[in-house]
Amino acid sequence: MRIDLHTHSTASDGTDTPAELVRNAAAAGLDVVALTDHDSTRGHAEAIAALPASVTLVTGAELSCRVDGIGLHMLAYLFDPAEPDLASEMELVRDDRVPRARGMVGKLQELGVPIEWDQVARIAGDGSIGRPHIASALVELGVVETVSDAFTSNWLANDGRCYVDKHELDPFDAIRLVKAAGGVTVFAHPGAARRGHTVPESAIAELAAVGLDGIEVDHMDHDAPTRARLRALAADLGLLVTGSSDYHGSRKTVRLGESTTDPEIYGEITRRSTGAFPVPGAGGSPRR
Ligand code: AMP
Ligand code: ZN
Ligand code: FE
Ligand code: FE
Questions:
Q1: How close is the Cα of 285 to the center of ligand 2, in Å?
Q2: Which residues have CB under 8 Å from 44's CB, separation 6+?
Q3: At what angle do helices 84-110 and 171-180 cross, to 10 degrees?
Q4: What is the pLDDT of residue 170?
Q5: Ligand 4 centre distance from Cα of residue 117 (Å)
Q6: Which of 5, 70, 159, 231 would you call most buried, defined as having the most Cβ atoms within 10 angstroms of its Cβ?
Q7: Is the pLDDT of residue 286 over 80?
């Protein structure tokens, strides 16, 4: 079984539509794929409708959080998307992304970059708008060569000249809300230092104490020593260990299934969740 538990579609800052994403998952030989758009479940229905027979879909989202001034991402799986407390918190974060993106466009304009809001809005479409959309606009304008090149202190990195904060969830609240909606939480890429400051191990221990289920260890932004350290921490804290691609279509170079999750861990995630079931591809038999 090949299981990839972290991907993005055009419902946030990926470039595959949800339908393309699940078809590409089948083509990549994945048996299970999770759709985890930033602060959004909007892509789920389209992904389910297009699901190839060979693929099971795990519905989810990646929640933008912050603790002690440090941003972090919390993957949430198999929660009930209709649960109002969680849904309204996600909506707050999603809605605040719009004025925040406008703020970043304004800062770019002040620096003389000929970027227009309409261009960024066109690139984002109806997806939850974020820095990668602005980065794509900067690539179109020839300001930077790649999306990744826009994430420097010159431009959109956390310490960048054009960075603007957005509303984010307290991760302790996020864990509680996802749990109340029947879902499971996995701390995404906790050691991804090149994105900015990472939380200390003591904070991961505190999150574990309030019910965090797991941490993502096998991720492209973790080098081998980081993976080893996180694996040991997970063992200490009794946390599940996952692996995934964090696929963003053509906005990142990573391929679907580049890192994967152990089937035993996937089984445990499905056993712990009560808010939603994995969706088997049409014609397939239910697999849990
Ligand atoms: P936002 O949610 O708008 O703050 O944007 C965060 C997203 O930007 C992340 O989910 C990544 O997809 C992307 N990102 C963050 N840091 C980098 C980086 N160094 N290179 C490329 N993409 C990045
Ligand atoms: Zn993203
Ligand atoms: Fe992330
Ligand atoms: Fe992600």
A1: 31
A2: 18, 35, 57, 59, 81
A3: 140
A4: 98
A5: 24
A6: 5
A7: no
pLDDT in tens, 123-166: 999 999 999 999 999 999 999 999 999 999 999 999 999 999 99
Taking the CB of residue 274, how many other CB atoms lie within 10 A of it? 14
Alpha-carbon span 150 to 272, nearest angstrom: 39
Q: Are strands 56-67 and 240-243 parallel, antiparallel or unpaired?
A: unpaired
Residue 283 has pLDDT above 90, yes or no: no
124 lines ligand 1 (CB under 6 A): no
Q: What is the DSSP letter of 254?
A: P
Full set of structural domains in the chain with CATH: 3-93+167-280 (3.20.20.140), 100-150 (1.10.150.650)
* Local confidence band at 195 (pLDDT 50, 70, 90 cut-offs): confident
Q: Indicate if the alpha-carbon torsion angle 66, 215, 135, 161 is positive or negative.
A: positive
Residue 242's closest CA among 54, 58, 56?
58
